[in-house]
């Protein structure tokens, strides 16, 4: 297994920059998630790491050895990387066993490695089926087996669960991550789904407009996003119009603590609150918030309330007082804040 280091990598297509100085570090045996909106350059970065495309500038090292620079390029077949592309990855005219054998050297095709790898992903009983005879989840497991069979140093997976419905997506993702952990693989999983990234990764890299804007442990990135983009990309973020003064924030929902990185400045700022940080409190203790709408959601009710200029969705108990026309709110826990420049 190998570490991966991407250092100031840039790539343009037809004069249009797609990657603008990307830095990424994945340690040996680590699962990293690359999270970002559509079009931010995730697939392009994976293809550069796999060696399908050349970098314009910067460097990619795999296992400490340079694999890509503007002046030198190790071809994909010499990188020992397993690539799991987006849906439709299996060859339709080959059986499951044929698909998995495809990437193996001829001498290893009859060696039991195919059966061993299919067993690893729990698909040994499917060896003689064709892809169209498999469910979506089974297809993804076989695609993973095909990538793992040649014992690659690194596995890269490009939105591997996109074609699956939400329920199946969660369970197949958990199985794939468990398999990667059993093999000790270093892996990079591309996704645009924050929950999937949080659930699978040791290290989360947030990508926006051709750059990695933050990389760190999933908890850290969620609780202490370093930029407004990182806050928005990593899950629901309510941005309150506030001020920072002496290490604390004032917001339309009252005073709030700040994460350490946001304490050293002062001025008008966007205060980033995660929905679960907004608490219903007793009358008189928090900000007055009229209820605009309420919606029963089974295990809870969702209230839409206004606070100053903001419309906010707040979770309340399922049987929340039907006669109430307002609630009182407070912010719990520390928030990230971003100074508003030029205002
Ligand atoms: N071979 C190419 N030629 C020209 N433009 C390209 C090429 N490959 C990618 N692009 C452009 O680069 C940008 C980034 O594409 P990329 O596929 O890397 O994004 P992404 O983050 O993976 O998006 P998605 O989540 O939608 O798959 C897009 O604007 C795309 O149109």
From TrEMBL:
InterPro entries: AAA+_ATPase (IPR003593), ABC_SmlMolc_Importer (IPR050093), ABC_transporter-like_ATP-bd (IPR003439), ABC_transporter-like_CS (IPR017871), ABC_transpr_FbpC (IPR015853), Mo/tungstate-bd_C_term_dom (IPR008995), P-loop_NTPase (IPR027417), Transp-assoc_OB_typ2 (IPR013611). GO terms for molecular function: ATP binding. SMART domains: AAA (SM00382). Residues 4-234 form the ABC transporter domain. Keywords: ATP-binding, Cell inner membrane, Cell membrane, Ion transport, Iron, Iron transport, Membrane, Nucleotide-binding, Translocase, Transport. Belongs to the ABC transporter superfamily. This is ABC transporter ATP-binding protein. It comes from Chelatococcus sambhunathii.
